[in-house]
Amino acid sequence: MPKPPSRTNKATSAAKSDSKPPVNSANEDISVEENLATATITVTAIEIPELTEEEQRDRLHLERRVERAFFEAGKALAELRDRRLYRSSHRTFEEYCRDRFGHSRRQSYLLMDAAVIFDNLEQKCDRSDHILPTNEWQVRPLSKLDPDIQPEAWEQAVESANGKVPSHRIVKDVVQRIMERTQVPNTYQIGEVCQILAKDNPELRGKAGCWGIVNHVGEFSCTVKTWDGEYTVGLQHLKSFNYLPAECEQMRQICDRIRRLRKNESLEEAARAVLKHLGEVKRPYLTAFEGELLNFIEKKYLLQG
């Protein structure tokens, strides 16, 4: 019976042909290190040309445009609102800003407020280097101060930032120190008619410019009664109309009449809309026609004024 072919010789010969002298890894590492130590690295120097006078002017101009971007946006929004240029497509300015720019009501008004502050700083700051805000977030704390004090606060913040544009935190700290230094006693009186200044307080959204009656006086705040509720408001968010006592009493009576009518569950939507208008007027009095409307609603629902 024939034997199967042997594969031993083939495997052996293959192993021999593939075999190589052993490599000394230590010697190889030494050789690489020597090569690296003696290698020559060529560095090509690139000369960066200085800016020409025209380029320097262009750079400064473009930097100013970037810095003033939020200011220009706020100014444009204010003009759109004041001239009612949105009226052909939208019922209210807030709806227009939301649809056209994706802004919330708060965002649009913050930009407009910031533009007013920026303009004030640009006109009144004495610093020769004219360090000005570059975004709305930096100037927002300044809205708590009177316009006459804002430049002083901004210059202090710039100094704290070592001559650079200060951060929101630095400006806020400076504003807090100034407010603590200039804190005055609460001089409001119960029954006084005040205007609500919403500013950057989201809890007062929709109440900007509305009137209210002070019914509690605290150390740093007042509780104000309005046509639709009561609000605890910081002193920086109130402004007195300086009405005579008799005029304050007249407005208190109007406020109470509106609040009493609103409790009537059978009140129609049209009547509620009128009461809402009367409660949100941006002045502490009613016109003769508005007074007649209030009287009519009271007679309709059998209430006495």
Automatic annotation (TrEMBL):
Q: Which UniProt keywords apply?
A: Plasmid
Chain segments carrying region Disordered: 1-30
Q: Where is the composition biased (Polar residues)?
A: 1-28
Name the UniProt record assigns to this protein:
Site-specific DNA-cytosine methylase
